[in-house]
Amino acid sequence: MVDEDNDVVMTEQPRERGRERRKGRGLRLGGRGESRQQALLNDEEEEEEEEGGNDRNVLQLFTPLRSVEGWIVLVSGVHEEAQEDDILTLFGAHGHINNLHLNLDRRTGFFKGYALIEYENFVEAQAAISGMNGTKLFFRTISVDWAFSTDPFKGRRSSSLAKPRHKAIS
């Protein structure tokens, strides 16, 4: 298009609403405060509505994965003043513990709040998970689950964003 001064006027074509790939930290896509992950979740919800299905209500089956050493259980939400002996006595009632790893904060010397417990048998590890999940230790509720599994994180909202954390070694 040409205006009165013989200048070429460029008109922008309306862009289709679709996914854009962008890089960078702290990228804001939508209005104030909408993060990139939230925008992706909103896009996923729109796609689910268009497809007519919602997979969130469907029970997802998963399988725990065995590590090289054994069956590893992740205990989170543990009080920072808990000791190794406290965890050994609680979880030792469910089976023989091969290894217990407590991560300590170097600065304070306190426990970081999670533990990795290794069992030899699947049955013992499953008994520890079912028996100890949701119980209280030092007045705090602990969460016990498999350290390695094919299920998505429980905190994630969309099944397509959740990928298996670890691959099984064959």
Automatic annotation (TrEMBL):
Feature: compositional bias, Acidic residues: 42-52
Pfam families from the UniProt entry: RRM_1
SUPFAM superfamilies: RNA-binding domain, RBD (SSF54928)
InterPro entries: Nucleotide-bd_a/b_plait_sf, RBD_domain_sf, RNA-bd_8, RRM_dom, RRM_RBM8
Subcellular location: Cytoplasm; Nucleus
Segments for region (Disordered): 1-56
SMART domains the UniProt entry points to: RRM
Primary location group: cytoplasm
Keywords attached to this entry: Cytoplasm, Nucleus, RNA-binding
All copies of domain RRM, residue ranges: 71-149
Coiled-coil annotated residue ranges, if any: none
Key word Transport present: no
PROSITE patterns the record matches: RRM
GO CC annotation terms, alphabetical: cytoplasm; nucleus
GO BP annotation list: RNA processing
The keyword Amino-acid biosynthesis belongs to this UniProt entry's keyword annotation: no
Molecular functions per Gene Ontology: mRNA binding
Identification of the protein by name: RRM domain-containing protein
Provenance organism: Salix brachista
Lineage: Eukaryota, Viridiplantae, Streptophyta, Embryophyta, Tracheophyta
